[in-house]
What does this fold into?
Amino acid sequence: MKIYTKTGDNGTTGLFGGTRVKKYNLRIDSYGTVDELNAYIGLIKDQEINPKIKKSLLKIQNDLFTLGAMLATPPEKETLKSGKERLNIPKVDVNSIEFLENEIDKMDEELPQMTHFILPGGHQAVSFCHVARCVCRRAERLSVALNDEESIQDDILKYLNRLSDYLFVLARKLTKDLQVEEIKWIPEKK
It folds into this structure.
């Protein structure tokens, strides 16, 4: 299989099911941003962090590939003429969301209560978490906009919303594990 197909040279790309759309299409922007998020999560996973966290991040990366495939499949192309699902893979669903919630709860139990907003930074791994969280929020906003145009599965939006929470808590957990100071946002008084 060749890496280059030349089919996108005119500014279009193919969705699952064969529909061709412009590369700036909202659906493309949504799953492209999920792909960007996945790359940032790879950066977090490549840091010197707890192996259990790395294992969770690998699961999340796999879930994001699935979520991207779900976003790349227009509703009218989800079912083949035979009646079978086009994506013959386990989907991101309530179990995927519960996994994130359980991970958040486990990490949160070890952390001090928040008393202030927190500024990103303190350690490279922590900063990568915050960048990933911001990209996740963008993917969520794009997916919400896409859902306004054509329906996408609710679990996609829930998953992205929960994942941004996970990444915030992970940043706090890594701050603790790496023994760096959490940078509180304390606005200056006039």
About this structure: The first strand starts at residue 12 and ends at 14.
